[in-house]
Design brief:
The complex is a heterodimer of chains A (881) and B (247).
Chain A (H helix, E strand, L loop, with lengths): L1 H50 L5 E4 L3 E5 L2 E4 L2 E2 L2 H7 L3 E7 L1 E2 L2 E4 L14 E5 L10 E5 L7 E5 H7 L6 E6 L2 E12 L11 E5 L1 H7 L5 E2 L1 E6 L5 H11 L4 E4 H48 L1 H9 L4 H39 L13 H26 L20 H22 L6 H33 L8 H11 L2 H39 L4 E5 L11 H8 L3 E14 L2 H9 L9 E2 L8 E8 L1 H7 L5 E2 L9 E5 H7 L6 E6 L3 E11 L8 E4 H7 L9 E6 L5 H11 L6 E4 L1 H44 L1 H9 L4 H41 L10 H27 L3 H6 L2
Parallel strand pairs in A: 8-13, 10-12, 20-25, 22-24
Antiparallel strand pairs in A: 1-15, 1-16, 2-3, 4-14, 5-15, 6-8, 7-11, 9-12, 10-13, 11-12, 16-19, 17-26, 17-27, 18-20, 18-23, 18-26, 21-24, 22-25, 23-24
Helix pairs in contact in A: 1-6, 1-8, 1-9, 1-20, 6-9, 6-13, 6-20, 8-9, 10-11, 11-12, 11-13, 11-22, 12-22, 13-20, 13-22, 20-22, 20-23, 22-23
Chain B lengths: L2 H6 E12 L6 E12 L3 E5 L6 H8 L7 E6 L2 E2 L5 H11 E4 L11 H12 L5 H11 L14 H14 L4 E5 L7 H18 L3 E4 L3 H4 L4 E6 L2 E7 L3 H12 L1
The chains are: A alpha+beta (881), B alpha/beta (247).
């Protein structure tokens, strides 16, 4: 008897784990991301900490340009400032630092090292003071000649360079070679890899590559012995009232914060997918508990018959849910730490991470338990409540298990949910309320739930029969049974399918939007750009771009009619409207630094294109112009009509704009146009652009080239290719290639999103497997009968697999439909915002592939239950009464 | 083993034993049972619970395997068959009627009747099907689901299924166990009729003397051994013999 009891508990324990598997995966993912983000932040912060550890103070310009994401770019300081700072009392040494992202490292394979999404490549000048120099030399010597370079050891390895090699650098002025004379690293011993690629040159070379002629990015200061950082900063502030001074500690903190912020954004982004997975898990828990409660009807009724109260019945199931939640959370936490460890090893190939097993913070543990237990209990509540309605008499009658149908209450509530969901979606899309994204998200959840609880059960049965219809000609009994099994319990089938619906909805939405965006970009490029070729750069670090000599050379190519350069820079609009806008979303006030505070007046940050008015409009169709390109003289600007209207500007108005280099400038609106090409809502004539933006931005980001009519395009292209031949990042593209290049970074992003959504899909598959297992258990007698009258194991397996495929395809098809509806709604909103630009395009091939993959995934999910069903003991099945 | 046994018998067993457990806990459900069931006869197996009557039937029907000895259906010895060959044998040569839960709830009565042939991918013999269905009076209910049929009707569908593929032998395990006496008598009449007029062979396990009275021959089992048999039984004689055996 004891053995039986023990077996019962063991069997139950296993079921607890399988039920919780969905929660385990979700929690593991969330915990893993959280833990990893903590490790990353700590590692990055300590790396950044070691980089600037020798700085006691930094003297820099108060003029800053906001780049978004908390990144700021400051005006350089004059070279002479270093000497002035050196004179201030308490200063032991003051050295000018060059720190820009204006060059790229080219590997021995001729390709740029690193990607646009990874850590940056930074140009430094080597500082003659070991306290101030960033990092430590570990091999060779410091750069002494103009053509010498020191690399960080990790980048040198990635690029394939050894001491003594000639290193290729791609800079604004084209490719250059430098002798590798030393290797360095971060930390006291120089053995830490910083992630960023650090290129150290002599000061004159760094200034040239960084476009800082006789200038520095800032001045790094070492204090005399016994002078505190605060005393030093105060002294500097008094002596140099026009400069901004920060202590070394604060400078480090600022840098740490800007990196951490990036990690936070990334963590939030990835966590969203964890929550999607948990949402999917809700359906599975709900479904599993529903089935268990239904199967236990007799047991419950018996309990009720012998005197158990409704509350006790409810409590029993809630307790089980709590237990599942607890066990799943614990296992999820363990899984999360394991996941983080694996990911940490992967990340460790990019930069030095803290050694050891990642530890759990109290916060991560609390989140895991609250979310894990909360989700499980919430999902189990409805089935638990339903079980209390089992009448004691049910113990005596032979009622069949979970005969679900679609009740009228279900339809009414479902419709209300659906309408509420649509209303919230509409509000979200209409940009209403303080957080339209949250509205949209809640609307989407309501919509999905209502579809799952109303539409799903309504269509599950007819859909299942429809799906197997082509396979049931003649006397094919296996597909017929599979279809009938899927149809016999529409509520269960629908809820199981719904878990898959969520993932498929998101995949469809993203796939449709992606294909639409691609089609839109392609059509915009084709319809608005009339150039034959575009010289384009594959990097977009600030300061990298196309050498300004390229456009000059392109114009000399025989057969070229015109070449039009376009530049790009940030700018802050400081007119009344923009200031008002800024006031509504101003962040927390910043602590005042020593010396001059940040100089930028309040306003809205945007970006501006520097163009050549006489050529730009010949290759870019920006719609109807008001004003003439000829009017775009120095001191004027052009704006998209929509923006001008929003700000209340008319042609001839003077508009204040802030530039870090030149401060607030009043520019005259000389031209408006219908729609920006390449996202440019604001245009400056090149002269004005050059005069105002930081030198780093004075590089072309694209050059449009138009050939003369009848010119030999192939020949023109060959000659253009020759101009940019030595820069691996720059290429000559025709319009098709240019359109592809615009969306190429998008593809990487899509791959990541699909990968992350894979988690939700896997959890949904676990759900299908779970439901099938329980159904197989429930149909033991029936399956036994089938086997007794001659169904082979193979046929039985096929029946279960067929049922699984039906569920999977049902979930997928509903997901496809909802995804298409959502994407269409989005496209309507986008089109309303910018009419004519957005081309709604269904990626039919992809959607077909998604459906086929889902059906195959259904096969995968059914493997275990099918195997179990086919191994069923026929005798036990038919003789158990 | 005599060859005449296999020639005239539809099925049978030779020194069939089925042993559960080991040592002190050993239970002999069947103890060297040798028996044969003639073609076109209606044989009943009777005995108290635990007598081994169900085990004997399960082993004869290829649902269970013996510990020692042999069973045969026609000229096929079941111990020589693999698992999938056994499945095919059940599908093609044997008909089943269980006490309850005989039908697949998702299939109509007609689909349930043709199920074994559909599983085999064979076409039913139309004439035979009509005969069986009409004999059982099931024609008006063919499109109904099992849940729409009464208990007696469900069992009749089960008998129809068992007969539909013209098997060598039909095994019925307490087919009237869940029916009221009238429905039970109807069903048994149908079964006798199938044997007498259609030439079928039926072996039925029962503990109900009046059910056994419908058969041509009754075999009495107790403690895994055959204790007695009776030709042309009546309910009273069966009851008497049961009382004697119980003593």
């Amino acid at each position: 008897m004891f053995k039986v009891a023990l077996k019962d508990i063991l069997a139950r324990k296993r079921r607890l784990v399988t039920t919780g598997l969905a929660i385990i995966l979700g929690i593991a993912f969330l915990t893993g991301t959280q833990v990893l983000s903590g490790v990353l932040k700590n590692s990055i912060e300590s790396l950044v900490g070691t980089a600037y550890v020798g700085f006691d103070a930094v003297v820099r310009s108060p003029d800053e340009q906001d780049l978004g994401f908390g990144q700021k770019l400051r005006s350089p300081v004059p070279e002479s400032l270093a000497n002035e700072v050196d004179q201030v009392s308490g200063v032991r040494n003051a050295l000018g630092v060059v720190e820009t992202t204006s060059a790229q490292l080219v590997g021995t394979n001729g390709k740029i090292v690193g990607s646009n999404f990874g850590p940056p490549t930074i140009v430094y000048n080597w500082l003659e003071d070991p306290q101030l120099q960033v990092g430590k030399l570990i091999e060779g010597r410091q750069p002494a000649a103009l053509d010498e370079i020191v690399l960080d050891f990790s980048s040198a390895k990635d690029a394939g360079y050894k001491l003594g090699d000639q290193v290729t650098i791609s800079a604004q002025t084209g490719s250059e070679k430098f002798s590798l004379v030393g290797l360095m690293g971060l930390g006291e011993n120089g053995d830490l890899a910083g992630g960023a690629k650090m290129l150290h040159f002599t000061t004159p070379t760094a200034q040239r590559l960084g476009k800082l002629p006789e200038e520095f990015s800032y001045i790094a200061v070492a204090a005399e012995e016994g002078t505190s950082q605060a005393t030093l900063a105060n002294g500097l502030a008094a002596a140099l009232p026009d400069e901004q001074i920060v202590t070394g500690e604060k400078f480090t903190r600022e840098n740490q914060k800007s990196v951490s912020q990036f990690v936070d954004i990334l963590t939030t982004f990835v966590s969203v997918f964890g929550y999607v997975a948990l949402f999917v898990a809700c359906f599975i828990i709900y479904n599993t508990f529903s089935i268990l409660v239904a199967q236990r009807t007799k047991e419950t009724a018996l309990l009720r018959a012998i005197g158990a109260k409704r509350k006790q019945v409810l409590l029993a199931i809630v307790l089980e849910a709590v237990l599942v939640g607890l066990v799943a959370s614990v296992l999820g936490l363990i899984g999360g730490v394991l996941l983080a460890s694996v990911l940490k090893t992967l990340v460790g190939t990019f930069f030095t991470v803290q050694p050891g097993i990642p530890t759990l913070s109290a916060g991560a543990v609390a989140t895991a338990f609250i979310v894990g237990v909360g989700v499980t209990v919430l999902s189990g509540l409805v089935p638990a409540w339903r079980s209390t309605k089992v009448p004691p008499i049910a113990a005596l009658t032979d009622i069949s298990v979970d005969r679900s149908s679609v009740s009228r209450a279900r339809v009414i509530w479902g419709t209300l949910f659906l309408l509420g969901g649509i209303a919230l979606l509409a509000l979200g899309l209409a940009d209403a309320g303080p957080n339209p994204l949250v509205l949209f998200g809640c609307g989407a959840v309501l919509f999905l739930v209502s579809v799952a609880v109303v539409l799903g059960p309504l269509i599950a049965a007819p859909f299942s029969r429809f799906l197997i219809w082509p396979f049931t000609r003649g006397s094919a009994i296996t597909p017929r049974l599979a279809g009938e099994n899927a149809a016999r319990n529409p509520r269960r089938t629908a809820a199981t399918a719904a878990a898959l619906t969520i993932g498929v909805t998101l995949v469809t939405l993203i796939a449709v939007m992606a294909s639409s965006i691609k089609a839109s970009v392609e059509s915009t490029v084709n319809s608005t750009i009339s150039a034959d070729f575009v010289i384009n750069s594959s990097t977009f670090s600030i300061g990298t771009g196309i050498p300004t000599t390229a456009v000059v050379q392109a114009r000399q190519v025989p057969g070229v009619q015109l070449a039009s350069p376009v530049r790009f820079a940030p700018l802050r609009l400081t007119d009344e409207y923009s200031q008002k806008q800024a006031a509504t979303k101003s962040g927390p006030a910043q602590a005042n630094p020593f010396g001059a505070p940040d100089a930028a007046p309040p306003g809205e940050d945007t970006f501006v294109l520097g163009i050549e008015p006489q050529t730009y409009f010949k290759v870019n169709d920006v719609g109807t112009l008001q004003g003439s390109p000829k009017d775009m003289l120095p001191g004027t600007f052009g704006a998209e009509l929509k923006e001008a209207d929003k700000h209340g500007w008319k042609l001839g108005d003077k508009v204040p704009m802030y530039f870090a280099r030149t401060g607030v400038q009043e520019l005259e609106l000389a031209l408006t146009f219908d729609q920006g090409s390449g996202g440019g809502s604001y245009l400056l004539p090149l002269e004005t652009f050059e005069a105002n933006v930081l030198a780093l931005f004075n590089t072309d980001f694209v050059v449009y080239v138009k050939a003369e009519p009848g010119a030999d395009l192939a020949q023109v292209r060959t000659q253009l290719d020759a101009i940019v031949a030595d820069s691996p990042a720059i290429s000559v593209q025709d319009l098709g290639e240019f359109a592809d290049a615009q969306t190429a970074p998008f593809d990487t992003f899509l791959a990541v999103v699909y990968g992350l959504l894979g988690l939700a899909v896997i959890i949904a598959l676990i759900g299908i497997a779970n439901t099938l297992s329980l159904s197989v258990l429930e149909r033991t007698r029936e399956l036994g009968l089938l086997r007794a009258v001659g169904m082979s194991r193979k046929q039985l397996r096929r029946t279960v697999i067929g049922e699984s495929m039906i569920i999977a395809v049902l979930g997928t098809v509903i997901g496809l439909v909802i995804g298409i509806i959502f994407s269409f709604a989005l496209s309507v909103v986008i089109s309303a915002d910018s009419p004519g630009l957005f081309k709604y395009t269904l990626p039919t091939g992809q959607l077909v592939i998604i459906t086929i993959v889902a059906a195959l995934a259904g096969v995968l999910a059914a493997l275990a239950p099918a195997w179990r069903a086919s191994r069923l003991d026929v005798l036990k099945a038919v003789s158990s009464v | 083993m005599s060859s005449t046994q296999t020639d005239t018998a539809a099925a049978g067993s030779i020194e069939a034993s089925k042993i559960y457990g080991e040592g002190d806990t050993e239970i002999r459900a069947l103890d060297e049972v040798t028996v044969s069931f003639e073609t076109s006869r209606f044989t009943a197996i009777m005995g108290p619970s635990g007598s081994g009557k169900s085990t004997l039937m399960h082993c004869l029907a290829g649902l269970d395997r013996l510990s020692s000895g042999r069973v045969f259906i026609g000229d096929t010895y079941l111990d020589e068959l693999s698992e999938s060959q056994l499945t095919e044998l059940r599908r093609d040569k044997i008909g089943f009627v269980f006490q309850a839960f005989n039908l697949i709830p998702t299939l109509s009565a007609l689909e349930n009747i043709t199920l074994p042939m559909d599983l085999a991918g064979r076409k039913p013999n139309k004439e035979w099907m009509d005969t069986v269905i009409d004999t059982l009076g099931m024609r008006p209910r063919l499109e109904h689901r099992p849940s729409e049929l009464s208990g007696g009707q469900q069992q009749r569908v089960a008998v129809a299924r068992a007969l539909a593929s013209q098997p060598q032998i039909v095994f019925a395990d307490e087919p009237t166990g869940n029916l009221d006496s009238r429905a039970g008598t109807d069903l048994l009449d149908f079964m006798s009729h199938a044997v007498a007029d259609l030439g079928q062979t039926i072996v039925m396990v029962t503990h109900d003397p009046s059910a056994a009275a419908h058969s041509d021959r009754v075999i009495f089992l107790a403690d895994g051994k055959i204790r007695d048999e009776m030709i042309e039984p009546t309910a009273d004689r069966v009851l008497d013999l049961m009382k004697q055996l119980g003593d």
